[in-house]
Specification:
Elements (H helix, E strand, L loop, with lengths): L1 E3 L2 H8 L5 E6 L5 H13 L2 E6 L9 H5 L5 H10 L4 E3 L3 H4 L16 H5 L3 H16 L3 E5 L3 H15 L2 E5 L19 H23 L9 H11 L2 E9 L12 E9 L2 E6 L1
Parallel strand pairs: 1-4, 2-3, 2-5, 3-4, 5-6
Antiparallel strand pairs: 7-8, 8-9
Helix pairs in contact: 7-8
Bound molecules: adenosine monophosphate.
The site of adenosine monophosphate has 17 residues, from α2 and β5.
Length: 270
């Protein structure tokens, strides 16, 4: 595996390759990331994984500072997977050139966009920069970050003529969605996260089976969960899988959740 830190070196290295798969990450490589890497390797002749903790998508400096990082372990994992290129650019290099800014529309300001102001503008900004450098025809992303996927598809896939390949959420045996942020949780919080995930999986299943009997409004349920687990839930909503509009439970839908547990924010969808 070649580790590349400069945009110049990356361009030199990949200029002759047409068949590249790109897997953007913020590091803390886990089985979720690995599923994306394997999907890319199955399809593409070369795979680039990036590790870049993007400052512009964090509202508070502390959140950016405390994001779990372990580049040494990551390099070992990626080497074992026989990834072709690891791209780890510096913040100042990624942000040194001018490019288009993205502004969300009113109808986009739902779910995480409502609760993390500026977050997705930061995500779109950095993805726009990476994609204009790498210009891969295939991007590999996880359904774990479903709204991110939705917005990148809408704002960037046309501009770069890129195919977005999605991979389902990888979970632990006790149903917690793998996430680098899980490293910030203690044992007790992890246990709670597992119980919450199992409950939400049950709700989704029951709703799917008996959609006519279920209420779309989950606000009572949200309050109950907050009390039971001593968590703060930002949202708990059924939304349309394609449009992300609030759902009538007739078309394909997903249950979206974001909550804070011991000051760590977790998101998931089922
Ligand atoms: P991150 O490093 O958290 O920014 O994630 C990088 C990519 O990995 C994104 O496309 C995520 O959606 C994806 N990802 C993160 N966690 C998981 C998971 N548990 N299962 C599948 N994909 C994931």
């Amino acid at each position: 595996m070649k580790i590349i830190t400069s945009i110049f070196d990356l361009n030199k290295e990949i200029k002759d390759y047409r068949n590249i798969g790109f897997v953007p990450t913020m590091g803390g490589i886990h089985e979720g990331h690995i599923s994306l890497i394997k999907a890319s390797q199955k399809k593409k002749s070369k795979t680039i994984v990036s590790i870049f903790v993007n400052p512009t998508q964090f509202k508070r400096k502390n959140e950016f500072k405390n994001y779990p990082r372990n580049i040494r372990n990551d390099i070992i994992s990626l080497q074992n997977l026989k990834v072709d290129y690891l791209f780890t650019p510096k913040v100042k290099d990624i942000y040194k050139f001018k490019t288009k800014r993205f502004i969300l529309r009113k109808e986009d300001k739902i779910l995480c966009a409502k609760f993390r102001k500026g977050h997705f503008e930061g995500v779109l900004n950095v993805m726009n920069r990476f994609m204009s450098i790498i210009k891969s025809k295939d991007l590999f992303m996880g359904e774990k970050d479903y709204q991110q996927l939705h917005l990148i598809r809408r704002f960037l896939s046309k501009k770069f003529n890129v195919r977005i390949n999605t991979c389902p959420t990888i979970r632990t045996a006790d149903k917690i969605a793998l996430s680098t942020r899980n490293k910030l949780l203690n044992k007790k919080s992890l246990k709670k996260a597992s119980r919450i995930a199992k409950l939400l999986i049950k709700i989704k299943k029951r709703t799917k089976l008996h959609s006519s009997k279920f209420k779309l409004d989950l606000s009572d349920y949200k309050k109950e969960l907050e009390k039971k687990f001593n968590i703060k839930i930002d949202y708990l909503e059924f939304r349309d899988e394609k449009s992300l509009k609030l759902n009538n439970l007739k078309n394909k839908f997903r249950l979206f959740v974001a909550y804070n547990i011991n000051k760590v924010r977790l998101i998931d969808n089922f």
